[in-house]
Design a protein that fits this description.
The complex is a heterodimer of chains A (468) and B (184). By secondary structure, chain A is mainly α. Chain A contains 16 helices and no strands. Helices cover 81% and strands 0% of the residues of chain A. Chain A is globular. Chain B is α+β, with helices and mostly antiparallel strands and 184 residues long. Chain B is elongated and about 80 Å long. The chains are: A mainly alpha (468), B alpha+beta (184). Chains A and B meet through helix 3, helix 5 and helix 6 of A and helix 1 and strand 1 of B.
Chain lengths: 468, 184
């Protein structure tokens, strides 16, 4: 493999003309257009009746989705997937899966009405229809991503990422359609039902929804694609098992299980049931995610370790690549030492190290040669600032903990914001003057305090506008 | 070249499989739904069409599953050619306001020529209501609204003059069996 081939390996299609020769590309385009038409036909009148509510719903859930994108991209940091392929995953979830699920769910509910009783349908239809139709349609989207760009699936974590993006697209479009239904039920183009939908579906139920279910299904698809040394029975079995787990999570969330607790404890019981179900789903996913991330890290770190070259990556730097917290701590150390420039250059170095590891894994010596110049430039930039080792070692101080606690005081009064910010400024200045490390909790506390302040300001603005 | 051709064939096979999967759900399930006949419902016991509302269906009624959503408190039945639709919903207003709303909806349907004045009615379970009949060029029917404890039930019967006349007694009896459970 030449250096050019190694560089081009990350490209999905050499050109649009080349893309147009693949049947999967055409199916994707046709199904997307059909999905848009189905959704437009179904919700066009509701949008025409309530344009202001529609715009608010789109804006709110776009912001909501952006937060998810940032988190998933942080998980996907070591080997970032191509943006347009992630966009394709969102499009499938948002337009293809949701539009066809609309048709399938309606028909399935009708079948259930015919073959069971109305009371059964009222209680159990959401738990049967949603998981069955929606999980299969979203998983077909992950298979479609494999068909579009098989070479981009290099680890089980890649499947998790594509699955999460398919689920995210589905989740946010469904949130907008739920908002439109809520507005239609209210009878006017009012914004209140949209905000209620945002609180319930975006904030209370958003963390353990379609993004999580499809991420798990994506892990199964990726396993089936990657483990070609295993038999078909094993590969298909794991993929179906992951789909079954996604189905089960969705079923659990939609089922009236533990409804009696809701009856007994009222609104407190409702919240309790919601949190128990949610944490069960999210907890299971996070445990699995831990192993998927570790596998990807071990695979890439191994490439860097074989070099035994501190100019490429010191042992501390390899350790720092492991997760977003350790990467952030290494950048924080550089920031304390050399300011924003230090932060940026260590980030560049980490990016170059991860890219080199990916290049070596995918392209061997050619991949190494293709990625080495970028790493050398990044290393030189860090070296120029007097940082010989971009490690993530950190100190724990009493001031750091105090700052962390004071950040929560912002929830009581926004005036408390001055304490975490002041401690951050003083802490960094002191560490810099003494050539020491600063406690990363100072930074975390300041960010947390600013988030709390922002939430406070949004609440004040919403009240002033009469929305809350 | 052979490798590229093989990859293209694999891609085609996968594409067909995905298309088949989507079609099975998007077209297959609706086709299956159409193939299953609507079920006749029992006239012996009340049919709970919402969490806190029920009705005893008339003789020979079948549920139109396409226009029924227990989650939304909507059930649509058919008695020969007569359409019998009941909706239960939380309604914060008065019985008069509920009747006015359904009256406005009925008047907005093209072809409706007249709606009578609302007459007070009471269901067998003692729920107060209002009822009015409407006449169109080729269709006729009536609506009945009940309200109790913030839950409003709307029952609309419509069909051709002959079919409504033929089943009027059974349908009126059924409408009077609407019950709203305040404890649910």
């Amino acid at each position: 493999m030449s250096v050019e081939q190694a560089t081009a390996r990350r490209r999905v299609f050499p050109s649009w003309a080349a893309a147009a020769t693949w049947p999967s590309v055409w199916l994707f385009v046709v199904l997307t257009v059909l999905g848009v038409v189905i959704l437009g036909t179904s919700f066009g009148p509701a949008i025409a009746d309530a344009p202001a509510a529609f715009v608010l719903a789109v804006v709110l859930f776009a912001i909501h989705g952006t937060v998810f994108v940032v988190v998933i991209r942080a998980v996907d940091w070591l080997e970032p997937e191509p943006r347009w392929l992630l966009a394709a995953a969102v499009v499938w979830g948002g337009f293809v899966a949701s539009a066809n699920a609309l048709r399938a769910n309606t028909a399935l509910e009708s079948i259930l009405v015919k073959v069971t009783s109305l009371s059964f349908v009222r209680d159990w239809a959401p738990a049967i229809e949603g998981p069955t139709d929606e999980e299969i349609l979203k998983t077909l989207g992950i298979v479609m991503i494999v068909l579009l760009a098989r070479r981009q699936i290099n680890s089980v974590l890649d499947g998790v990422v594509y699955g999460a993006f398919v689920g995210l697209g589905f989740q946010e479009v469904e949130n907008v359609t739920y908002s439109l239904n809520a507005v239609a039920a209210a009878g006017t183009d009012s914004l209140g039902p949209v905000l209620q939908t945002f609180v319930v579906r975006g904030l209370l139920a958003g963390l353990w929804s379609h993004t999580v279910y499809s991420a798990i299904a994506g892990a199964g698809v990726a396993y089936a694609v990657l483990h070609r040394e295993r038999g078909w029975f094993n590969r298909i079995g794991v993929a179906l098992g992951a789909l079954a787990l996604a189905w089960l999570m969705h079923f659990l969330w939609n089922s009236p299980a533990a409804a009696s607790l809701t009856d007994l404890a009222g609104s407190f019981g409702t919240l309790l049931v919601l949190l128990i179900k949610g944490f069960l789903i999210l907890g299971t996913f996070l445990v699995l995610l831990h192993f998927f991330r570790r596998d990807e890290y071990v695979g890439l770190a191994g490439q860097l370790e074989t070099l035994r070259d501190p100019w490429t990556a010191t042992p501390h730097e390899i350790a720092a690549l492991r997760g977003w917290r350790s990467r952030g701590r290494a950048r924080w150390n550089a920031f304390v030492y050399a300011g924003p420039r230090g932060y940026r250059r260590v980030r560049q170095l980490q990016r170059a190290q991860a890219d080199l590891a990916v290049g070596m894994r995918d392209g061997g010596q050619a991949g190494y040669a293709a990625r080495l110049p970028a790493l050398q430039r990044a290393r030189y930039g860090v070296y120029q600032l007097g940082i010989p080792d971009a490690d993530a070692l950190h100190v724990t101080t009493v001031t750091g903990w105090i700052s962390f606690v004071l950040a929560f005081a912002v929830l009581v009064s926004p005036l408390f914001i001055v304490f975490p910010l002041a401690l951050l400024v003083i802490g960094v200045a002191r560490a810099r003057s003494h050539r020491q490390r600063a406690d990363p909790r100072l930074r975390t506390a300041a960010v947390l305090a600013l988030v709390f302040l922002l939430a406070y300001l949004v609440t004040v603005l919403a009240r002033a506008a009469g929305l809350a | 070249m052979a490798g590229a051709s093989s990859a293209w064939r694999r891609n085609l096979a996968g594409t067909i499989a995905v298309a088949a999967g989507v079609a099975a759900l998007s077209l297959g399930i609706p086709a299956l739904n159409r193939a299953i006949p609507n079920a006749t419902v029992s006239t012996e016991r009340p049919l709970a069409f919402a969490e806190n509302a029920s009705v005893v269906p008339p003789e020979g009624a079948t549920i139109d599953a396409r226009e029924t959503s227990p989650e939304q408190g909507v059930v649509t039945m058919a008695v020969d050619g007569v359409r019998y639709r009941l909706t239960a919903e939380a309604f914060p207003g008065t019985l008069r306001q509920l009747a006015d709303r359904i009256r406005a909806e009925v008047q907005n349907i093209s072809g409706i020529q007249g709606v009578s004045a609302d007459q007070p009615v009471t269901s067998e379970s003692g729920v107060p209501g209002l009822q009015a009949t409407f006449v169109a060029e080729n269709r006729t029917g009536w609506y009945t609204v009940y309200l109790r404890g913030g839950t409003g039930v709307t029952a609309v019967v419509d069909g051709t003059d002959a079919s409504v006349t033929g089943h009027r007694a059974a349908l009126e009896s059924s409408v009077r069996t609407v019950a709203i459970d305040q404890t649910a």
